[in-house]
Write a structure and sequence with these properties.
By secondary structure, the protein is an alpha+beta fold. The chain contains six helices and seven strands; from the N terminus they run E-H-H-H-E-E-E-H-E-H-E-E-H. The protein is globular and about 50 Å long.
Length: 181
């Protein structure tokens, strides 16, 4: 497998080109930035790069930016042990294992930064992402029915978590769901 280079920095023009090169399908699955267009891409990049709550990962393959991901810290003191997680891989690089590789790197980074839980959301029909997250050990924590509308159509959102110390997490998870049912 090709060697990825992961950096916390990126040339704005490379970031812009990567974002503008994403297909509509990829944008529908990675709605974090909302609609990306030539008119708003500079504003999106400026906002993203100045966000000091994020640990950014720019993913390069042979000097080409193929993806972007981040871990984001919570401001609330009661959630300082949790980070959120986001990732997007350029279309021509999807399905080649690069997402899995960067996710493993992000998880290692989160644990080194003393986070105890990584939380993410994805759409129920984003089967490729769900497969990767489950393989990495994320568990489903919740299902949000008709949570978002994309092009007027409702989409269900899956909330997932990965725990640094996952001892008894599955038992706790099952116990809570049993109480709720």
């Amino acid at each position: 497998m090709n060697k990825l280079k992961i950096s916390s920095k990126c040339e704005k023009k490379d970031f812009k080109n990567m974002l503008l090169g994403l297909s509509q399908k990829t944008l529908n699955d990675f709605t974090y930035f909302g609609k990306i267009s030539k008119k708003n891409v500079e504003k999106i990049i400026f906002s993203e790069l100045k966000d000091n709550k994020k640990i950014r990962f720019f993913i390069f393959l042979e000097n080409e930016l193929i993806g972007y991901s981040f871990l984001s810290k919570f401001i609330r003191k009661s959630k300082k042990h949790v980070c959120t997680y986001g990732i997007v891989i350029g279309d021509k690089w999807q399905g080649k294992g690069f997402g899995y590789q960067i996710c493993k790197h992000m998880i290692e980074t989160a644990w080194k930064k003393k986070f105890e839980k990584i939380w993410l959301t994805t759409y129920y029909d984003n089967k490729a992402a769900l497969k990767v997250y489950k393989k990495l050990g994320f568990i489903v924590e919740g299902i949000f029915i008709n949570e978002e509308k994309i092009h007027g159509k409702p989409r269900h959102v899956i909330s997932m978590g990965l725990f640094k110390n996952n001892k008894n997490i599955r038992k706790t998870h099952q116990k809570i769901f049993k109480i709720l049912n």
